[in-house]
Amino acid sequence: MKQSLDTRTKLLTKNPISLMIELSIPAVLGMVVVGLYNMMDSIFVGQMVGAAQMGAVSVSYPFTLINAGSAAMLGVGSASVLSRAIGKKDERTIKKIMGNLVAMVLLLSVIYTIVGMVFTRQLLSLAGASDLRIVFAGSLFVNFFQSANMVIRGEGQLKKAMTIIASGAILNIILDPIFITVLKPYGLGIEAAAYATVFSQFVQAVITLWYFR
């Protein structure tokens, strides 16, 4: 990752105040964009499907935090190792990080997907919601892009990390009303919003994979 080592030079030589502003603004905007996912799903489902279905989206949201928490755990840990490796100019460790991250993401995603698909009714019934297996079906995509996005930040490429997150959020905003309009006549209003979100996360995962290629 030659780009990572170039970032190291910038971090060591650039004015601290301007560097702090340059790095913090994309990070803050990225967090805001992440919050748009659930908010926009709720808005479109509430306006185009119904209030009860909007409640189901809100109830199911905490379960998606399981994926987000796992992805953050893997991503922050990997980013920490990466940052130290960049500081030491340890190319061997830098090259190993993504392989280890992908392996752990695959393992955890398979576990969450199987558990979620098999026990989704029991899990969601605890919160008073109905079946929503689609949330768990996209585990691999959301786990990969969220954890890998942390690694991109660890490289110091916060603008690129924010751009990847923003691309998925914007795509989700565009696809939500389209999917709901097309699938609602078939009784798949709330599922349509979930499909739009999972597809957007898939696109983010592909873009992230292309970045690390």
Characterization of the model:
This protein is 88% helix and 0% strand. It is built from eight helices and no strands. α2 runs antiparallel to α3, α2 runs parallel beside α7 and α6 packs antiparallel against α7. The longest helix has 38 residues. The radius of gyration is 19 Å and the shape is globular. The model has no long low-confidence stretch (mean pLDDT 75).
Brief description of this entry?
By secondary structure, the protein is mostly helical. It has helices at 2-13, 16-48, 51-88, 91-125, 134-137, 139-154, 158-183, 189-212.
How large is the count of helical segments? 8
State the secondary-structure class: mainly alpha
| Element pattern in H and E | HHHHHHHH
- Work out the radius of gyration: 19 Å
Profile the largest sheet.
Answer: none
- Poorly predicted segments: none
Note the gap between the termini. Answer: 11 Å
Shape: globular
Multimeric state:
single chain
How big a fraction of the residues is strand? Answer: under 5%
Q: Mean pLDDT, rounded to whole units?
A: 75
Tell how many strands the DSSP assignment holds: 0
What features would you highlight for this structure?
213 residues; mainly alpha
Topology:
Elements: H1 2-13, H2 16-48, H3 51-88, H4 91-125, H5 134-137, H6 139-154, H7 158-183, H8 189-212
